[in-house]
Amino acid sequence: MEAEERSVRMGSVAAHPLAELLECPADAGNLLNGSAKALEVAAGDVVFRQDDICKGLYVVVSGLFLRKAERLKTRLTLGPARIGDLVELAAALGDGHHTYTLSAQSSGSLLLLSIEALNKVFENYPPLRMRLLEELAREVSRGYLSCCLNRTVHTRRRAGGVEPA
Amino acid sequence: MSNQPRLNSLGLHFSPLDLLLRGILADPHLRSRYEIYFPQTTGPTMALMHSHHPPEDCQNCEHRHLRMFCNLTPEALADYDGIGIMMSHARGAKLFTEGDPARNVFVICYGQVKISSTSRDGKTMILKIAGPGDVMGLSAVLANVPHEVTAEAIEPCQVKTVRKQEFVDFLGRHGIASMHAAQALSGEYLTVFHDAKRLALSGSAAGRLARLLLDWGRTSANGKPEIKFTMALTHEEIANMAGTSRETVTRLLNQFRRDQWITIKGTSLTIVKPDQLERLTA
Hints:
The complex is a heterodimer of chains A (165) and B (282). Chain A is an alpha+beta fold and 165 residues long. Chain A is built from 6 helices and 8 strands. Helix content of chain B is 39%, strand content 21%. Chain B is built from 10 helices and 13 strands. Chain B has helices at 16-21, 28-33, 74-81, 138-143, 164-173, 175-201, 205-221, 235-242, 246-258, 274-281, and strands at residues 35-37, 47-49, 85-89, 94-96, 104-110, 113-118, 124-130, 135-136, 150-153, 157-163, 227-230, 262-265, 268-271. In chain B, helix 5 crosses helix 6, helix 7 (205-221) packs across helix 8 and helix 8 packs across helix 9. The chains are: A alpha+beta (165), B alpha+beta (282). The interface between A and B is large, with 42 and 51 residues.
């Protein structure tokens, strides 16, 4: 039952298809396409680092990538970025600084939609910004659900100095 | 402040009889001095906000430059001032509950709000303590899903409450507001993962509590050498954040104090030996 509930709730905040998210009028679409730059990476390469200035929105075309963040002295692994994922909505829509580090787990490629082109499209076609903001909100909601919905906090209890099996 | 209470528009439950009994609606002088709010979950109790509190309008708020969301351009700020209402909440009032439909976005003007999630077996995990300038309910409103968490005032607070559609329209009109909303969302995102990691990966209760104290201390110190902060939570609430029991929190805090790693004076906690606490978190 719990798994079913989890599946329903996760389904309600599932990422929307890329084509739907980036759908915009022809002139805006041409502007985005024109600015798109293909990036090839090898395993272990860092695509961008946390706090660096964001060059734009990344779309994973091939390969597997990992998102990691640091806060105070703690390092966090936020999870993988897979083919078709829009990467760094928060930075592209926010203050322009990367909120985490993205590194390649395998060789692959990404498409970079420049921040200048995005901002121009946002001005000419504001619904695109709103749609991407909603996608970011779904990403946050997925984070909440994956962390809270089915969480299990195991507090280790020692009995006579022996760790439980 | 408007003389017309706009609480109905938010779908909140309040009794006009209660208002009339207190003679506030009937008295234009009183009506202009107070904003009235009946918390949804606490029945007919009432929190009154006196007019000498921080200004009702965001344009004259002296704190907004320090706050992430409301530090807007003059044009956007004037528009922001025209939407939503300012509400005061008593300690313990629930602003929204996990699973409730997300109808409003909440921006804290002053005070602190506990953000928590409860499991089916009744265990509560406190995810964060939201403070002035923080935006609550944003992800649920924009993702069009029920609230993922519960928000409860841990001290008297003032919160700007904006209806979902009003807020979405406002974001659509002002690029800077969308930008700030994105920043708020990314902050929320990292907080969620950070808290999950603190609970899932720190092996011992002492390690989790030490991590919590260090986080609060370093955030509050903001680069200053002295790591000191005000502990607004009860031991029970700290236990809910650290994934342990109230008794363990009390015992560990006493232990840290005896070892002279921390000092506690009233609600003020100073971390004297951060390295020792750091070792526990490893």
